[in-house]
UniProtKB/TrEMBL annotation:
Its main location: other. It is found in: Peroxisome. GO terms for molecular function: isomerase activity. Keywords: Acetylation, Fatty acid metabolism, Isomerase, Lipid metabolism, Peroxisome. Pathway: Lipid metabolism; fatty acid beta-oxidation. This is Crotonase/enoyl-CoA hydratase family protein. The keyword Transferase does not apply. It holds the Pfam family ECH_1. One of its GO terms (cellular component) is cytoplasm. The keyword Ribonucleoprotein does not apply. Transmembrane segments: none annotated.
Amino acid sequence: MTSPVNYKTLTVDISNKVAHIVLNRPNELNAMNVDFWHEFPSVIHDINNKSAARAIVISSTGKHFCAGMDLAVFSANGADDNIELGRKHDQLRRLVLKLQDCFTVLETARMPVLMAIQGGCIGGAVDMVTAADCRYCTSDAFFSIEETKLGMTADVGTLQRLPKLISIGLVKELAYTGRRMPAEEAKQAGLVNQVYDTQESMITAVLAIAAEIAARSPLAVTGCKEMINYARDHSVQDSLNYMSVWQSGMFQPQNDMMEIFKAKAQNRPPEFAELTQIDPTKIF
């Protein structure tokens, strides 16, 4: 099923419980303009709230995955010079927080998010892909914390999430220098799961991984995502304790587990109920 919504910066296709979001401004190197910052989190929220898919794949068009932030975003949100200085700085802080939230949605979405990256993944694009669950790339891909070259500090998630993925010394080198990290180095460092020769073979493989995820119990998968992300940010003991609390509420063996046993006995794929939909407009 293809989304009926016409977006300016991306396309969305949902098929067989996998949502495929494609950044679609190849002539502009998929730079993140004002429309992107509105559309991207809206799409993720919509898929999550409607339980429209069990896995999300994000890919791109053209030579490069994404050239990062379109600097016109800042001019579009330019502070009024007549505003008192403290309030002007507060306005900028709230803008940065809003931009951060646009990628945090990838972590808070209940379903896994897989990134398929070709060519350049630059600046704000690194912020985005580090918020995903898994990353895959082509052999010509490279990653660059470009903000340093522009005289600013990366502020939308790279410096907070990348140290959880690769060694902190390597993060510091990449951030301080702004150099490009090529695909093979990214794989050796653990930033990407796999490197593919072509974009076509990569997207085929990543969609296949997403389809395998979608065949599993969505409640079990979202539990894995919740627990892994929690363990990343907490001690082992705190994470074990949270696991016990989660399992005491979510583990219902008479449902998904019994369905798996029945499906195996009947030589058929298991059928699972979707996660419940979320209506953000309702409290009860």
